[in-house]
Design brief:
heterodimer, A: mainly alpha, 5 helices, 0% strand, B: mainly alpha, 6 helices, 86% helix
């Protein structure tokens, strides 16, 4: 290893605030957060799978319920697994997330909206084929 | 501001761009889900029991990945290596089930060339599968790096990025099993 590499390794390895070793309380907090996340996610997953096959509720409401459950579970994952919270050192992460969600929503609703309208306004395929003859 | 927070932020932006790419695949799938061209639909192809096992594997692996990152922060080897091994095994089981499902579908004549619906299905689910494969390779790299170089701050930051990546794969799987499998099988 050359001298400059060693030096850069030392710079990288330099401990800064926030990089400290976990003590007992940090560990309990970390594990507790993951346990809560696992419990909530398991619950939401079981409800999703149960609802998808049930005849207890009105049929057309099932997809809506599934979407709501999925969004709730994504929220649980974000908070308890990825630790995206409302803390002061997390503002940038939340802003980036909000922008990402905006783009995802535009992409999904835009595509679905345009494509269903195109399908709706399009001549049936067999008629197009006949016109091309 | 600590370097750990800055590195996490940068990697989070990459993950969001990855999520946006997946949302394009989701939009494609949702548009093409009815275009079966006389071939099999999701209702005939999907087996919710195997999907439930896959979901359980990925969720548990996300949990053990979190435990591994706590173990790494404590510099506790048994904890870190044990949790990483559990994550690796659960991820490999998930991948094995998925490959088995794909091979079975292709053998039944329901490969990606059969219909637009199946092209979109294989692209979306296959892309997630590729991400899991890359994640497993990264996991093994991180274990090797911690083993060789110890719990240095830069190695720990890489482990943080890996755990963010792995948790994000689980978030995408939540959308995937809901939109593709549960809605597809219930139609």
């Amino acid at each position: 290893m050359s001298y400059s590499e060693q030096e850069s390794d030392l710079l990288l390895a330099n401990n800064e605030a926030g990089d400290e070793r976990f003590d007992g309380r940090d560990t309990a907090e970390g594990v507790g957060s993951y346990l809560i996340g696992l419990g909530l996610a398991t619950l939401l997953t079981i409800v999703s799978f149960f609802i998808s096959g049930t005849t207890l509720v009105w049929g057309p409401s099932i997809p809506v319920a599934l979407v709501v459950l999925a969004i709730a579970q994504m929220g649980v994952h974000l908070v308890f697994f990825l630790n995206i919270t409302t803390g002061p050192d997390n503002v940038n992460n939340v802003m980036a997330l909000a922008f990402g969600v905006l783009i995802v929503l535009l992409l999904l609703t835009g595509s679905l909206w345009i494509m269903t309208h195109l399908n709706h306004n399009m001549m049936p395929m067999n008629q197009i084929m006949q016109m091309q003859r | 501001m600590s370097k750990r927070i800055i590195v996490g932020y940068g990697f989070w932006i990459f993950l969001l761009s990855d999520i946006i790419m997946f949302s394009a695949f989701f939009a494609t799938y949702a548009v093409l889900v009815g275009a079966t061209a006389g071939g099999p639909s999701g209702r005939e192809l999907f087996n919710l029991h195997t999907v439930a096992i896959e979901t359980a594997c990925l969720l548990l692996s996300s949990f053990t990945c979190g435990l591994a990152s706590v173990g790494a922060r404590m510099h506790r080897g048994s904890w870190f290596y044990g949790a990483m091994a559990a994550t690796c095994i659960l991820g490999a089981i998930f991948l094995g089930i998925e490959v088995h499902e794909f091979v079975g579908m292709v053998a039944r004549g329901a490969g990606p060339t059969r219909s637009a619906f199946l092209s979109a299905f294989f692209t979306l689910v296959g892309c997630h599968g590729l991400h899991v494969t890359a994640g497993l390779l990264w996991l093994l790299t991180m274990v090797a790096q911690v083993f060789a170089k110890g719990y240095r701050a830069d190695i720990l930051r890489r482990t943080l990025c890996f755990s963010l990546f792995w948790h994000t794969l689980d978030i995408i799987w939540v959308a995937l099993f809901t939109v593709v499998y549960l809605m597809g099988a219930g139609q």
